[in-house]
Design goal:
The protein is of the alpha/beta class. The protein folds into two domains: 2-253, no CATH class; 274-390. 61% of the residues lie in helices and 10% in strands. The chain contains 21 helices and five strands. It has helices at 2-9, 11-22, 25-30, 37-57, 60-76, 81-92, 95-98, 104-126, 130-138, 148-162, 164-175, 177-180, 184-190, 194-206, 217-231, 235-253, 255-261, 279-292, 303-313, 330-334, 355-358, and strands spanning 297-300, 318-320, 345-349, 361-375, 378-390. It has a five-stranded mixed sheet, with helices on one face. The longest helix is centred in the N-terminal third of the chain and has 23 residues, at 104-126. The protein starts with a helix and ends with a strand.
Length: 393
Amino acid sequence: MRALGSALFGARVGFWAGIAFLTLPITSALGLFASTDAPLLFLWALGMLLLWRALEHGSPARWLGVGIVAGVGLMAKYSMLAFVGSAFLALLAEPRWRRQLARPAPWVGLLVGVAILAPNLVWNWQHGFPTFQHTAEITRVGARGWHPDEFVELIGAQWLAFGPLLMVLLLWALVRLRDVWPDPRFRFLLAFVVPLLAGVCVQALTGRANGNWTAPVFIGASIVATAFVAQRGRPRLAIVAIALNACLGIGLYHWPDIVPLAGRALDGRSDPYKRARGWGAMAEAVRPQLAAHPDAVLVGDERELLAQLIYGLRPARHARWQASDRIIDHYGLTVPLTTASGDPVLFVSSRRDIADVTTRFASARKLCDVDVAVYQNFHRTASIWLLHGFQGY
């Protein structure tokens, strides 16, 4: 980020743009989790830097670098495809850049990127395109409609993710588009801001969109907001916006400590980290049953529950209940329960009714129910069954 901002507007803007991005509330939030967004954002920023230098100097080596970064980014997350589209828009934004389309270097870079992604595409083709099916599922491709509530929620999420004052500065720059558009540096950045943001907004309005899907937008947006106020002679506005975001990030990180100081107890409504809580206690509740049946295969029908139990218990064997031909996660692809998986089966599920599972076995016995009270209004529950004689799906 600093290098990209410096290449575009000088070292001072580059420094503050880098600080602005590091202190974004969404950066603070994503920093708490292991996520594919981390390599995506790094490669997106690196790709923008290499692309700018390629556009300015036309170096074949830099175009090759853009292709390599784009290909590796696509292997990290398919969202990098938007980078490729934005790169072409950036090429079209300036006459001297458009002339590079007549040269082989940009196309060689594109082919290199496709070559890096090719093993992923081949693997998907060989396995029925499971990652594409997963993407279609989370974006509700098959259930399009009109969802203004999703759109409003996304807009609110973007405001919070970018920071309230920094977002005002960005909107100020966009409102003054006639002033910034003549500058090719702003046109370059806006090619990586507006299309993806607009696309995700349309996705939210007609289907479903998560707030972090626009995270790459904030790379260019941080530089746009910072450079715009610097050119207006008001760099202190950016510093105030950054300070406010830093306070918000610290508040988000320490929220579980702040709420009790305010005289309130954390609960399922006030704890933003509740999804990460209770899993250790759940694993410990299952442990005695696994110890009592050491020869059993630990099986689950939900990815998150199974993943947490594998992490907490380290069972000798585990498998995924995969009754459907439609594979939606790693466990269903790599360790589906089959008649060759072994016997008996220790089945753990948060569902109350698992008749669709028990009827597939010669015998089934419920061992116990587990109820982990994370908070009074937020529980993790599961039932544990001992099953013998798997007869297939």
